[in-house]
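dude i think i finally got it to work??
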Amino acid sequence: MYFAPVDPLDLYVEQPVPWAVYDRDGKLVLDKGGEFESEQQIRTLLARGLYREAAAPPRQPAPASPPPAPAPQPAASEQRTERKLLDETRLAVGDTIQLQAQFDGGNMRLAVSLIGYLKGKSIIVTAPMRDGKFLMMREGQSFIARMFSGKNAYAFPATIIKVTNVPYPHLHLSYPAEVEAVMVRRDARVKVRVIAAVQSRNSPSAAAILSDLSTGGCSLLAENQLGQKSDEIVVKFKAPISGIEQLLTLKGIVRGIQLDNAPVDGRSRFTHGVQFVDHAPGDQVALTAFVYQKLIEDELKL
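look at this
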């Protein structure tokens, strides 16, 4: 019996599956006609690897049902999500793709570069490296591929179908039927917790916590006030982008300051609203990549 990875887009809550589902060891997880109880159950099982018989028919779309009343969403999640074909994403040779795999409670992220693709056949990427050495990959490994292009963030399931070292190490990944896309707004904010160094014109450098971030600004938490409203400041922090830590240096203007008088740990903190201005081109690219990467991780939970 030959097994193929289950497409996460084929799994629904409380909808009978049209085929038996197995784990990576070939053990039965859910019999044909069984139902998943929750999205959390689906995510947990996908992280361990789910497979079905290769000859099994594709999942038919879930029957339409009246949509539930929309729940209020935080500002960071106000994105428009849709599905596209891969050749509609305008990916270019050399674009970075992040391969994420979850296994035994661990989480692995690998950065590769797009070499090219043949529609309906495979996506060709460079072999991932770590500490200057190529990592050993095996055929059949499954990942969630994440990337961004233009103002869009994308994600799709991918499986290594061929590993080759000729004429150089590269991988063939399975070609997705569709990719899930998030249309990123300029003011879309992502929740982060990053240590930053803040320098103002009239004060020495001070430590702060960058608590949320967008391409246009951020919030900074600090035990002491970081200057006055309308002051110009410089924010420096390290951001892990596609597995590589980069130092960003961003100029900003303090637009608002608020004192938290009832902190949980008993220590008062100041929250500073900061608008970024006059980015250096390199920092702008890195900031956009970091924000998009977080949006991919937060919004596209396949």
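Residues 281-299 form the longest helix (19 residues).
im so relieved honestly
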